[in-house]
């Protein structure tokens, strides 16, 4: 079989990339190892930049109609006696413009929407139950059951997640950072009125609640590394109590989980591949970087990679500029953005990693100052949203640390918008006439 682009892996990243390419008349073959829906939980929070990208793909209305909008993340810090000691907010509406909210969507449902949209194009060829096992120079080697297949292509993109065959073939080595904690994760019914995200912590406990559509809520509960086995031996009522202690609003709801089997262990890791491109091959999403789930960025980074690589490849093919060297534009745009998000997520993870009262006190003060200082608040939401990048400077750190007072004056809307990535920032090769 011959094609222009071969994509290994039909997760959110691979499917977004495929849709982008087929909409631009590029011939795409995609191999997806699984035949049926994945049984595991994965990312479900869509950040504003992802919504902007889906609008460009004509899917904004469909995706938002099947999601729960999150304007505000409530951060509750509880005392040892589980009373609310402090409450702060991370508010997406500090971002001017249409894309000023996050959306929670069931992961498999989002995959269905993307696959259905791509399948409407005759130039999209989807092979489910087919694994990519390796490559020769211009051929992908595939396996479907006992059958072996080969696909010849001009470009090969690895979107297979953390254990990427394409990354291995490119001889790009990664160095993983592990954390001192794991998470229990599960979705269950929620009260209808519980629609904002909530992060509830004490000095030694953490529960994140992210409302999904259909009156469901996705939860993540932090446990020390190695505690899972022992926890699973306890009656399920022990799990219910861990939740209702911190979130009394979930009483009567979390109890609808009656079996530990539904509750999954999530092991956070962090890595950033030193490069994304080699010859006519590139990696995107979790194949290129893994990020601590605290900031809800993993799936969004895959979507943002797909947007840049897809636009670039379509331009290269359309303009007959197929020299693989041009793929380096993708890395140039995405690498530093991804690195910043990885660092932010890592810092957020560290803020909850140490079960000591002074750490909890510092965390609470930092969030308070972020909420009081409109510039810090905007920076935080901008960086999380993916719409732009504005790194914190020494002055910001001093404000966060309480060394100098907070700024009270907000930025005008125009100045905020100047911080958003422009079309030239996203696709710099276009206007410089480089491709
Ligand atoms: C268990 C788990 C829980 C997570 N929870 C969260 C969360 O709560 N919040 C958050 O923000 N992020 C979370 N993430 C991260 C987030 O889901 C990912 O960042 C996101 O899904 C990355 O998308 P992707 O398309 O790059 O990779 P994936 O979603 O991993 O998709 C890769 C696809 O490739 C297929 N595949 C793999 N190998 C091959 C092969 N050799 N040939 C063909 N196909 C192949 C797989 O079956 C899969 O469909 C989680 C990740 C994991 C693994």
UniProtKB/TrEMBL annotation:
**What keywords are assigned to this protein?**
Monooxygenase, Oxidoreductase
Task: Mention one GO molecular function.
Answer: FAD binding
Q: Which residues form the FAD-binding domain?
A: 2-344
The keyword rRNA-binding is assigned to this record: no
Q: Where is the signal peptide?
A: none
| UniProt xrefs under Pfam families | FAD_binding_3
Protein name (record): FAD-dependent monooxygenase
- Native source species: Planococcus halotolerans
């Amino acid at each position: 079989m011959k094609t222009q682009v071969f994509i290994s892996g039909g997760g959110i990243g691979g499917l977004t990339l495929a849709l982008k390419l087929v909409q631009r008349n590029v011939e795409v073959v995609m191999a997806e190892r699984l035949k049926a829906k994945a049984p595991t939980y994965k990312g479900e929070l869509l950040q504003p930049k992802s919504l902007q990208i889906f609008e460009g793909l004509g899917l904004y209305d469909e995706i938002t109609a099947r999601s729960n909008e999150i304007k505000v993340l409530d951060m509750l810090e509880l005392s040892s006696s589980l009373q609310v000691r402090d409450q702060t907010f991370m508010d997406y509406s500090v971002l001017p413009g249409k894309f000023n909210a996050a959306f929670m969507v069931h992961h498999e449902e989002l995959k269905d929407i993307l696959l259905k949209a791509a399948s409407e194009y005759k130039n999209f060829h989807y092979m489910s139950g087919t694994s990519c096992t390796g490559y020769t120079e211009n051929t992908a080697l595939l396996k479907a059951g006992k059958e072996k297949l080969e696909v010849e292509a001009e470009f090969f993109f690895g979107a297979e997640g953390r254990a990427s065959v394409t990354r291995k073939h490119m001889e790009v080595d990664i160095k993983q950072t592990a954390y001192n904690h794991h998470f229990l994760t599960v979705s269950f019914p929620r009260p209808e009125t519980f629609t904002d995200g909530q992060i509830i912590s004490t000095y030694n406990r953490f529960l994140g609640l992210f409302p999904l559509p259909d009156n469901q809520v996705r939860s993540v509960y932090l446990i020390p590394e190695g505690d899972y086995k022992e926890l699973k031996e306890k009656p399920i009522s022990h799990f219910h109590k861990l939740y209702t202690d911190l979130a009394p609003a979930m009483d009567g709801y979390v109890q609808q989980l009656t079996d530990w089997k539904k509750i999954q262990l999530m092991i956070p890791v962090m890595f950033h591949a030193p490069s994304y491109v080699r010859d006519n091959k590139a990696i995107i999403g979790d194949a290129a970087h893994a990020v601590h789930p605290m900031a809800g960025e993993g799936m969004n980074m895959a979507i943002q990679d797909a947007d840049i690589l897809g636009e670039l490849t379509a331009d290269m093919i359309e303009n007959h500029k197929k020299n693989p060297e041009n793929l380096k534009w993708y890395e140039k745009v995405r690498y530093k953005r991804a690195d910043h998000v990885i660092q932010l997520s890592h810092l957020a993870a560290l803020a909850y990693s140490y079960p000591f009262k002074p750490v909890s006190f510092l965390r609470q003060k930092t969030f308070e100052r972020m909420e009081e200082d409109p510039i810090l608040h905007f920076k935080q939401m901008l960086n999380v949203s993916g719409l732009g990048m504005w790194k914190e400077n020494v002055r910001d750190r001093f404000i966060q640390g309480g060394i100098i007072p907070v700024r009270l004056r907000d930025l005008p809307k125009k100045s905020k918008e100047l911080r958003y990535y422009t079309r030239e920032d996203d696709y710099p090769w276009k206007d410089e006439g480089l491709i």
